[in-house]
Amino acid sequence: MNTELIRKIVKVSGVTAGELILVQFWGEDSDIDIMHNFAVAVAELGASPFELQQSRTHNRNVFTNAKRTSFDDKYYSIFENVDAVIDVFIYQPVVLKHEITAEQMDCYKNYMKKLFESLMKKKRFTQIRIPSIENALESNLSAEEYIDRMTKAYDIDYLKLKEICEEKINELEAAKEIILHTGNNCSLKLVTEGRTWIADCGDGDWPCGEVYIAPIEEETNGTIFYNKLFIEDTGVFENVILTVEAGIITNSNHEQVNHFLESLLKENLTVCELGFGCNENITSMCGYTVLDEKMHDTFHIAIGDNRMFGGKNKADFHMDLVGAGKVEMVK
């Protein structure tokens, strides 16, 4: 990721003069310049960068030798004055990928738990996936395609994106209900009255570019058609119709999809989100939800937990299901 793109991302993330910004970097020494470049971009905006590297190699060595007295409350107190976090990862965060004893792993997990409890309280927690070979592994795309798609998704006109998101929300806020018309005769009604639309145009998960809401959970009803339904870690299924009753996905017209649905608890089958993609630099779906849900002119519903954005459904996971169709707004 070049320095100009890093500057653009840091500026849009909301960094302002006088803030203390933690730049947390998940990567090895060979890529340490990425962390430094983010820190420089923070300083250029008049804020103070505070660098923290989370290297798998170094963490293995540290927690192989750490004692019970290591990482007590004094350690976590150093983050008290941090205003916001820019969380940059060259590979999957937290996962150590090294063998250590069960006792050492407990110490490592406790460290990560307390660290994130501290950092998630900050006014912004911005996550940046670096377009890297390691990150490509979670996408089922080739490294070349992943890096190309991700770089394009990042390198957009963010002022225009903000305008697109704001216009979309102004349009959607006028509706009490949203009906998604898909396939030949499928319609799914979601009630949005009383809930708040949220724009993701730079201060959350990146690449950014969507507006979303937690619909009234028990009032979603109907059917929804997917030409291609991408289910993470399960497969890609064609011509799928999902049936939703009182907010719960009850069944589908596809045997393998039904097997997947039957493996989930009721709270994990609850339709918890409705969102619309707004990123014009994402021009086709590829099966990688991080990109697909931000693609301009797509919708997504999600199942699972939605308490972080105004809902009331408590669940142990969250999965987005991205599609395309006609949107009807009932005022």
From TrEMBL:
Domain of life per record: Bacteria
A Pfam family recorded for this sequence: Peptidase_M29
InterPro entries documented for this protein: M29_Exopeptidase, Peptidase_M29
Phylogenetic placement of the source organism: Bacteria, Bacillati, Bacillota, Clostridia, Lachnospirales
Residue intervals passing through the bilayer: none
Gene Ontology molecular-function annotations: aminopeptidase activity; metal ion binding
Gene Ontology biological-process entries: proteolysis
Keywords: Aminopeptidase, Hydrolase, Metal-binding, Protease
Protein name, entry field: Leucyl aminopeptidase (Aminopeptidase T)
